[in-house]
């Protein structure tokens, strides 16, 4: 079973500090949504409101069509997986996974059957009799996930569940989480500050900043066409190029940009490192022009280079160049960028 989640005009204060500001959000049944943002942006507070651990000062939370705004966590059709897996060290994995069912009064035979089913789902069917201390960090994370799913929640809440894992294991678990979500069909709401993690697993990313939703949408759109300068910068490395508008034409150090200005006053062009290319000027390209290589390093899939353009010697651009050639310091490269890869925002 799965359910939609609707947040309507939620505000929350901690004393005089406003942690959530007019949050409205609709999550479809069976959707995998990530709440993404820096520390202190409100993402964990919002997850706590969804789980019932905090009651909003204003607004409503609906799960399905039911108003859950004042319903205690134990009475909500949600479960939460925390970064600290909180497994019982004296219990077997089977008993850990079946613990919620035991608290709900389910008999031993049925809860053990359900626990074994969930352990098999997360690839630990043969380890049901083991104790948590016998497992790796990734395996303990799977047990915590199995325990949360065993009670058949309509919505599963995940609070940075992969934060304690090393990079390689975290990436492996990202793939597993998405595969499990597709199999069970439960609505997942996942908090993270890791942009790559959010893009790897989410159907939709909700970017938060200072208690507000800055942007939301599919990962590719959020990355390539962010709705705000904050979202553009938070979603990955970004070159910022000062620009201005004169007589309806936007210009920067590299020439005119065929884009309407979003506002009067100072502007900023944004350009991802991978969007900078070595090539010839053309009508559909921004010609950055000759640029001196300050340094370059091989990263396997690309060469990461810092470049100083001749047209703007006080500027340093970061570019991800093809991996088949490592330029040397002081090499000069002729650079271009497709105009469709440029973002344009008002300077805050």
TrEMBL record:
Per the UniProt record, one Pfam family is TOBE_2
Q: GO MF terms on file?
A: ATP binding; ATP hydrolysis activity; transmembrane transporter activity
Q: Which UniProt keywords apply?
A: ATP-binding, Nucleotide-binding, Transport
Limits of the ABC transporter domain: 5-235
Q: Does the keyword Magnesium apply?
A: no
Task: Pull one GO CC term from this UniProt entry.
Answer: ATP-binding cassette (ABC) transporter complex
The yes or no answer to whether the keyword Transport is present is: yes
Instruction: Show the SMART domains listed in the entry.
Output: AAA
Q: Which GO terms describe its biological process?
A: quaternary ammonium group transport
Looking up PANTHER family in the UniProt record yields: SPERMIDINE/PUTRESCINE IMPORT ATP-BINDING PROTEIN POTA, SPERMIDINE_PUTRESCINE IMPORT ATP-BINDING PROTEIN POTA
Q: What is this protein called?
A: ABC transporter ATP-binding protein
Native source species: Pseudooceanicola sediminis
Task: Tell me the organism's taxonomic lineage.
Answer: Bacteria, Pseudomonadati, Pseudomonadota, Alphaproteobacteria, Rhodobacterales
């Amino acid at each position: 079973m799965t359910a939609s989640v609707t947040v309507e005009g939620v505000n929350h204060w901690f004393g005089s500090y406003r942690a959530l500001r007019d949050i409205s959000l609709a999550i479809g049944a069976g959707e995998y949504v990530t709440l993404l943002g820096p520390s202190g942006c409100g993402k964990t507070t919002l997850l706590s409101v969804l789980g019932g651990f905090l009651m909003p000062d204003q607004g409503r939370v609906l799960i399905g069509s039911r108003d859950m705004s004042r319903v205690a966590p134990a009475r909500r059709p949600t479960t939460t997986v925390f970064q600290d897996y909180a497994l019982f060290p004296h219990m077997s994995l089977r008993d850990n996974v079946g613990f919620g069912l035991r608290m709900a009064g389910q008999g031993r035979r049925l809860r053990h059957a359900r626990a074994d089913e969930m352990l098999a789902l997360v690839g630990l069917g043969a380890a049901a009799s083991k104790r948590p201390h016998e497992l790796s960090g990734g395996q303990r994370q799977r047990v915590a996930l199995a325990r949360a799913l065993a009670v058949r929640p309509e919505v599963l809440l995940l609070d940075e569940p992969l934060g304690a894992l090393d990079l390689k294991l975290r990436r492996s678990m990202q793939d597993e989480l998405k595969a499990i979500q597709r199999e069970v069909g439960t609505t997942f709401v996942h908090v993270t500050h890791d942009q790559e993690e959010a893009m790897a697993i989410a159907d939709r990313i909700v970017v938060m900043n200072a208690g507000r939703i800055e942007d939301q949408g599919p990962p590719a759109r959020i990355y390539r066409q962010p709705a705000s300068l904050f979202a553009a910068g938070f979603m990955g490395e970004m070159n910022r190029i000062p620009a201005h508008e004169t007589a309806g034409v936007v210009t920067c150090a590299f020439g005119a940009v065929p884009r309407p200005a979003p506002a009067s006053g100072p502007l900023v062009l944004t350009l991802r490192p991978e969007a900078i290319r070595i090539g010839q000027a053309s009508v559909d390209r921004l010609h950055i022009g000759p640029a001196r290589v300050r340094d370059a390093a091989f990263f396997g899939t690309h060469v990461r280079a810092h470049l100083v353009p001749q047209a703007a010697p006080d500027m340093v651009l970061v570019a991800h160049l093809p991996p088949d050639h490592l330029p040397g310091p002081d090499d000069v490269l002729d650079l271009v960028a497709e105009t469709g890869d440029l973002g344009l925002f008002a300077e805050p």
